[in-house]
Prior knowledge:
The complex is a heterodimer.
Chain A: E1 4-15, E2 18-29, E3 33-37, H1 44-51, E4 59-64, E5 67-68, H2 74-77, E6 80-84, H3 95-103, H4 111-120, H5 134-146, E7 152-156, H6 164-178, E8 184-188, H7 192-198, E9 201-206, E10 209-215, H8 216-222, E11 223-230, E12 245-251, E13 254-260, H9 263-271, E14 275-282, H10 285-292
Parallel strand pairs in A: 3-8, 3-9, 6-7, 7-8
Antiparallel strand pairs in A: 1-2, 1-4, 4-5, 9-10, 11-13, 11-14, 12-13
Chain B: H1 3-44, H2 55-66, H3 68-93, H4 95-102, H5 105-110, H6 116-148, H7 155-159, H8 162-182, H9 186-205, H10 214-219, H11 221-226, H12 231-253
Helix pairs in contact in B: 1-3, 1-6, 2-3, 3-6, 3-8, 4-8, 4-9, 6-8, 8-9, 8-12
Amino acid sequence: MDQLAIETRGLVKRYGEALAVDHLDLQVRCGEVFGLVGPNGAGKTTTIRILVGLSEPSAGDVRLFGQPLAGSGPALRAKVGYVGEEQAVYPYMRVSEAMDFLRAFYPRWDQDLALRIADVFRLPLRQRAGELSKGMRVQLALVLALAPRPPLLILDEPTAGLDPIARRDFLSTVLGEAVGPDQSVLMSSHNLTEVERVVDRVGIIVHGRMAAVRTVDEFGSSQKRIRVVFQADQPPAGILDQPGIAGVAREGRGYLLTVDGNVEDIMASLARVPTFALELLDMSLEDSLLHYAGGDRRA
Amino acid sequence: MPSPLRAVIRKELRESVWKLWLGVGLLTVLGGMLGPTYGLLGGIFPQGAIELLPAWLRGPLSAMLGDYRLYLWYNWYSKNLYQMLTVFSIVFGAGLVAGEISHRTSGFLHSKPVSRSVVLAAKYAVALGALWLSALAGTAAALIGSYASDHPVAVRSFLLGLPAALSGAAVLLSVVLLASVSAREPMKAAGLAVLWLVIMSVASVVRPLRGFSLFVRMSGERTALTGQVEWGAVLVMLAAAALVLGVTMRVFRTKEL
């Protein structure tokens, strides 16, 4: 079994009556880039805040590199680099001062790497963090997260609010320049195109629970959509209740089926009844997310 | 000293420079003015005029006009110093944690490999250092001002009031820090601290409880009368500060940041 960089079992986070994370099981393997996607309020940021020590779980087990996070000391936290939209570098610190400040926390701090990435982003070392643009502040946070060469990098909506060029530069730097083959990345994002492009596996989180975990290719191969227009006014009895049909939506005179597995059998059975149209469509990650989040419903 | 602690202390020192200047500056001015204004007090109340005042005011004023040592002690330890230390503990301490949360820098700092206890200890130590330095500067200014205005005082006897004032400041700051950890915005933390300190001050005005009042102990009333430091009270105050700080650390360890 692969060693796990992150493992949560039955992770629960409550805020009063509200359940933000509901028995979440998450496994991120060492060396993989894992994308965490889900609608707003699904529990992505809460999960990440627990993983980086900003929030305490209400219940459940959290392990990083096999060690329990609860009661762990700074040594385990030194293995995690974090870039989150909810954090700000001290605005009065110059870029170089922020680097000097954090050097004291990490025995493995790589100043050459910090300066190299800062140079790639053209970050002015003498400029104060509070004077940087939003994009540059995110870039600075990335520099500071990568310089200790953490075995695990956690990115929470790192490119939110960045323009497309800055987004591309950010991700190419993360995955091309800085993250080595032994490093794991957990990345949450609303930008599914971006996620599809860079991750090895994707977890879809809905209502605080992990709805599905697959590789991007698996999402494409096992999940399909079928558009069918029956010649009869009503579909034959039971034909839309076959195993594998996960969602049925009315679309004009026809039906749009969301299929999760058993695609061939379903297509064959539909082909046996008279139809005006029958076509098999690929599903994008966005379609999958919408499906799990309840964006397509049974008719 | 471990590197992360040193780094956090350096950061806190940098953020606290204005507090130090404010505290040292104001208390130096207040302390330094006491000697020169003693003569003015006599001028305001010429011979005979003091008899026209109500009895509750006449007694202390007559005593102070007749004894500079009493005047200095009353105006410094029993008035200016503990009142200003109370105000400064709120100004210095309310934003220590709540300010970081509201400015979103707490997420940056506490996602790094440093324990929350270390961060809190560094914040407390630096703020307390600023409070104590302010108190020491003001006390020195009070002595210098006395000599400069030809009112020499026994330095050693006057300094006997400091242990109670400084240990009381440690309690005040720990209470304000608990408020800062309990709130998410500096203004709310300050409001909470003011509320708690007002509740604590009730003991000062209830005669049977005066002995238990932090503010009464800080003013060093007994020390002024006996010429002896109340080491028992000082130790109790330091223990209370440590206890409240311990509770604060416990609350902070599980705080959502």
